[in-house]
Amino acid sequence: MELTWYGHSTWGVTVGETDFLIDPFFDNPFTDTDPEELDPDHVLLTHGHADHIADVDRFRGAHFVGTPELAGYLTDEYGIDDTTGMNLGGTVELGDAYVTMVRADHSNGIDTGYGTSAGMPAGYVLSDTKPTQVAEEDATTFYHAGDTSLQTEMRDVTATFLEPDAAAVPVGDHFTMGPMQAAVAVDWLDVDVAFPMHYDTFPPIEVDVEDFEREVKATGSQTDVRVLDGDETLDLDELV
């Protein structure tokens, strides 16, 4: 499984031969990538705020996944018909991956953050094997937490039943978890690797990302914190 961080909450994930893009927003200070250069098979949307869906129209050839409300908005606003509406707890098989939508605690007004609701906000767990109660030792699983506060479902559901190897968690504070709460989330998730995201994009979410590293250590967690450069790609299978 390959991961690329394009800044903010925008990630590219390759599982086998299947390419995913999560929350396309390329107007951020971490990336030099031209969205036109990317050709994802599937675009996953965690919620409807502008800093997560701003570039959806650049990927009209892709299949989009989100809540039913958000999928309907893409059709009405952008004429994007190749969508799958799903909801919390559901799993869909997309190419070589299984994608599970999980809870995120946040607001979810479409586009501007006000007005029309896009349903519940979400996170995603992507795995190269189907989630079952029998642990698959060879599975590789990545959790994108979306925009969220700290919530016990991370510990009680995501960690316990979906068993992610790596997690990308928001650390920018103000609109999401800050470094301290994100570190608690990482400890609860018991992942091998954690990646900070959703920070330093605009003034309210500017933080010292090293605070996140220190807070993770303070929990006693053995998780390896990786602070990525924008547009950096790594092979998750080599880290877990």
What does this structure look like?
This protein has 240 residues and is an alpha/beta fold. It has helices at residues 50-53, 68-78, 153-162, 179-189, 209-218; strands spanning 2-5, 11-15, 18-22, 42-44, 63-66, 83-85, 91-94, 97-103, 122-127, 141-144, 166-170, 193-197, 224-225, 232-235. The strands form 2 sheets. Strands 6-5-4-3-2-1-14 form a 7-stranded mixed sheet, with helices on one face. Strand 7 (91-94) and strand 8 form a beta hairpin. The longest helix is centred in the first third of the chain and has 11 residues, at 68-78. The N and C termini lie close together (11 Å). The model has no long low-confidence stretch (mean pLDDT 95).
- Oligomeric state of this protein: single chain
CATH topology: Metallo-beta-lactamase, Chain A
CATH superfamily: Ribonuclease Z/Hydroxyacylglutathione hydrolase-like
Query: Portion of residues in helices?
Result: 10-25%
CATH class membership: Alpha Beta
- Report the strand count: 14
Largest sheet: 7 strands, mixed
Strand order of the largest sheet: 6-5-4-3-2-1-14
List low-pLDDT spans: none
Total number of distinct structural domains: 1
Strand portion = 25-35%
Silhouette:
globular
Q: How confident is the prediction overall: mean pLDDT?
A: 95
* Terminal-residue CA separation: 11 Å
Which structural category fits the helices and strands? alpha/beta
Order of helices and strands: EEEEHEHEEEEEHEHEHEE
Report the CATH architecture: 4-Layer Sandwich
The number of helices is 5
**Rg, Å, rounded:** 16 Å
Question: Main attributes?
Answer:
240 residues; alpha/beta; 14 strands; globular
